[in-house]
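quick q for whoever's on today - can somebody do inverse folding on this one?? i tried earlier but teh output was garbage lol. tokens:
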């Protein structure tokens, strides 16, 4: 009998495809949906899934959308905010919205929505040859109800360190033992090197950056991007999700799933397991099945893990790449 956290190896080893849960706005190359977060609200008996739609390199991530469901499978749109609305709220040009994280604050009961925003002076990052000139930071909105009005709080992860001066975004944020933990994409301005950095917060608003952790005691590779969920384990917080090492024509594309114990004391990610994500459906590209983003949660009511991935479609995509692929959100389940 297994002890401690249900083994991540078993979560992925027993996964079964359920359905397509979100389709992109259309099926033209460069059109996506996804990059979101699943949040199960047991009190409200609701499942919330966020997404950002994109249509080509000009109409980049143009909104943050929130979908609701009663079963984690059939979702309907309940709320959204556009990048034009965010531009007015923030007072800075928002060129694109990417990854979003939705959580419920344990003290206030309010919902936190974290948005990765491209706030560069020039809208250039839709072009793969200029992608490293973008400027990404993470903005927080707060609401009493995901279906209601979102109030601005402000930027909470900004590029104020050398290692994240170009990008401080695409976070995986979860709450473990009351502590907000973020693993986020960090890139120095003007550089192509991408790391996963670590930050902590007691309230989800004021964050302390700890820096770039090692992986099994070694320096991270030149491109190392994690995206998934953080859960509680016997030895400490455990990250479960994707590991992205490859950039194909401007797109960070994924072949592998991993799990790490987050060793906060030694600033190290200790590997539990690493394995290829092998495509099992007709909706996943055979070489690069996932475009970075995964979110997963354990559903107590059905005793199963829900795994949502932004998958690269092999039929509608011209080829894997920033403006040539089509992405949609797939649901896999794993019974315990």
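ok took a stab at it. sequence:
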């Amino acid at each position: 009998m297994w002890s401690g956290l249900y083994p991540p190896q078993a979560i992925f080893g027993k996964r079964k495809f359920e359905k397509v849960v979100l389709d992109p706005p259309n099926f033209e190359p460069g059109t996506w949906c996804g990059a979101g977060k699943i949040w199960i609200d047991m009190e409200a008996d609701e499942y919330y899934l966020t997404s950002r739609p994109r249509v080509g390199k000009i109409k980049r991530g143009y909104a943050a959308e929130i979908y609701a469901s009663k079963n984690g499978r059939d979702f309907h749109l309940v709320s959204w905010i556009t990048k034009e609305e965010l531009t007015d709220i923030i007072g800075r040009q928002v060129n694109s919205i990417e990854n979003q994280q939705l959580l419920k604050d344990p003290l206030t009961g309010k919902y936190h929505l974290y948005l990765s925003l491209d706030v560069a002076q020039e809208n250039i990052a839709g072009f793969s040859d200029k992608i490293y000139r973008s400027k990404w930071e993470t903005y927080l909105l707060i609401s009493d109800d995901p279906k209601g009005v979102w109030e601005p709080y402000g930027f909470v992860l900004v590029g104020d360190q050398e290692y994240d001066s170009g990008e401080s975004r695409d976070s995986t944020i979860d709450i473990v033992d009351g502590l907000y933990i973020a693993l986020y994409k960090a890139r120095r301005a003007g550089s192509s090197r991408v790391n996963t950095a670590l930050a902590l917060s007691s309230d989800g608003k004021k964050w302390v950056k700890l820096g770039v952790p090692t992986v099994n005691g070694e320096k991270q590779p030149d491109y190392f991007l994690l995206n998934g969920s953080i859960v509680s384990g016997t030895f400490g917080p455990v990250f479960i999700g994707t590991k992205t090492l490859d950039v194909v024509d401007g797109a960070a594309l994924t072949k592998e799933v991993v799990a790490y114990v987050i060793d906060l004391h030694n600033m190290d990610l200790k590997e539990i397991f690493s394995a290829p994500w092998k495509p099992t459906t007709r909706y996943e590209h055979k070489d690069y099945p996932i475009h970075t983003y995964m979110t997963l949660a354990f559903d107590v009511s059905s005793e199963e893990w829900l795994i949502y991935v932004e998958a690269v479609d092999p039929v509608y995509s011209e080829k894997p790449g920033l403006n040539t692929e089509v992405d949609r959100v797939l649901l896999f389940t794993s019974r315990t």
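fwiw The mean pLDDT is 96. also Helices lie at 8-13, 83-90. so keep that in mind when u check it
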